[in-house]
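Can't attach files on this board, so I'm pasting raw text. These are the components:
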Amino acid sequence: MNESATRIILKAELLALRHRLLKRSPVRLVLLALFLLVAAVTIGGAAFAAGLTAGQFLPNESDSILSGGFTALSVLMLVVGFPTVIATFFVGRDLLQLVLAPIRPMDIFVARLLLAMSANLLISSLLLMGTLGVGVGSGAPFVFFPLVVVLIFVQVLIVTALQAILMSLVLQWVPARLARDVAAAVAGLAGAGFYLAWNLSLRQTFSPRSRPDFTNVNAVIQRIEWLPSAWPGHALSAVIAGSLGGAAIWLMLSLALAALTIAAAEILYRRTLLAGLGVFGGPQAVWRRAPAKPASVVVKQGAGSPARAIAIKDWLSYRRDIRRLSRMLPAFLFPIGYALTFLRPSRSINSFWTEVALFGFISMFLSSALATPSIPSERRGFQLLRMAPMTMRQVIRAKVMLTLPPVLAITLLFTIVVAATSGHGIAQLAEVSVLVVWLGIGFVSIGVSAGGIDPKFEASDDRRAVGVVGTLAGLGGAFGFGLLSVGAFALFVFGSAAAAGTAQLGPIPSTPIVGALMWVGGLGLAVGAAAIVVILLWLADSRLRTYEGTIAAV
Amino acid sequence: MPLPATDGHIAVEARNLVKQYGLIKAVDGVSFQIRRGEIVGFLGANGAGKTTTLRMLCGLLTPTSGTALIDDIDILAQPLQAKARLGYLDEEPFVHPHLTGREFLNYIADLYRMPRGPERQQRMERLLRLFELADRDGELIGAYSHGMRQKIGLASLLIREPSVLLLDEPTNGLDPRSARLVKDLLEELAALGTTVLLSTHILEVAQALCRRVAIIDRGHIVATGTIEELRAQAGSEQASLEDLFLKLTAGPESRELIERLLAPKL
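---
Top answer:
Structure tokens for the assembled complex are below.
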């Protein structure tokens, strides 16, 4: 009997995955497996425990919790899933081969849909654990548990098909010349919008009290319960409530929706596959037309500077790559969203230290978004830098100097706005500004280093441009640096107050000696924080100097 | 045809270069010397180790053992000095897709600290005109064809006048006119004292351009010398470079396999 085309395609993909895995060194594979196991147990266990607690103690809120969980999963998948969907459905030379082969487009669609689901399925495992916890906590009947697996799979199918529909619609309606950038902008804006909306709605959900008010959660969830993304949650809560009839109706509705979206996606994909291959598979559309007259050339004087050359090249590339630019939107919208939230008069989180923590977080967030991909985004052009008569230290310095101004500008602006609306004095604003500049320099250096430690120059997407080792080094480094820096800042602030005799330190006396000791402690922590940055920069430098990964492979 | 202006000075030297990936030796003890102003052809089958050798010579890959010298400078010991003297063109040139040709040339010139000013500008204009890219000024390199990318890659080498050129399939993807242009250009450059190591599959190009050739097979240099020396080595005075190459690199089983494949089915 002949194998189906879908099966053949999937088998080839699995074989390729196996080869990719086996190509790594056994030590790295074991470490990766261990890390994944620990992460799965920790994160999955936490999700299960949270679900268990909610199911046990909030039995009347199970519908809200489950509906909210499924909606959150859909939002998350929409936010992070677009690049995977574009890549799986429309990019890849293997896809060209499939199009040329005597295979029905439906077979290609089904195979690609299943492959595109892989990233979304990984994300959904978190919801799976949480939902199983809710089931156990609320003493749900046995049928609840297999139903959870089925419904999450269906939800992932729906969202993935919906993403394929969105991309196909863009290809259908937008001229091919612009489709790639419009698709990128849609993905970026959808991600940023959903993220901000979700973030702000969660912030509104919690009352000004220190304890979350779950009646408010219910109010928010009720507003979204009509959403199809909430239907699987309704089906499961009906099972918990013992209403199998209700569960069957919601289940049928979810299955019908899945069938409808998959059918629509298949029809649209069939129509737009070739256009999509042309738009996404080939080089980026030319956005500039040749001018009618030759461009006037301004002759500049002076010596050529590699740092300036990298700066100009990065600036031009960023400006012209709308896809990358659109992916920066969440990073820029995030502090603006937070600033708006802070400016609301009803806000309760207004203490100085909460603001310090937020400044640190936003600085870290912006730095990781802008600085981390700065070295891997050189792609094959990195080899030009390797061949040029310049050191990798110079490259790293150029990247840090380039990323620092936008990060500092945004964080300082945010700091000034928040400090001004909070009514802090000039002295406190100056203190916080110094901290923000320190954090900016540190986080940007750590971000650039993370990209240099484990760059993936072959990645076409900035979000996959840094490997596991680099990501861990970046996260760990940023976390350590942030903690030590804020600790040092606190010791400096309290030390100054103690020296002046105005500090409230509980049993510790507020004296100049205590103040001096706190300053010494603060200096120690600051040196520790700086050491983390220096170590990561050194690691990145030595790694880049000897980097051979893609150079040897290509 | 201008005669090569070689003065006997060794411009490129590979000393027992080895590159090992796990158990596989991609390059195994490669040694050769190229004199200043010489064009040397570097020939080998796919996967023979040509690109790996070139990348070790230009400092992109670190040899497992051995030394690469550019104008007597060890590329590992003094990388900046050595790199300033050489230009390497990859089979798939390293370019930035979001820059125009002119911007890319400026970028490269800045990376190599070339003084800005009218001289640089004039040289850039000349190169853009020479490679017929001046009219595509408003286009991003990402939209260039393979041949155009190859041309802008070559222009990016020539703008900074390196004394040593390492070229991996420089005529790959070029139309016949552009390929001819590149050949003429290389001859002119060699006459002016530029040293060229040219890796190519097109044996006619090697035969026409190169005074000497080095043939690499499975990581080993199997022959070096002028065509006449190779003919003498192979014992056939009338053999073409293609015949010599096949004799030195392909086993007798190849012919047998082809005959078996083409034989009518019984």
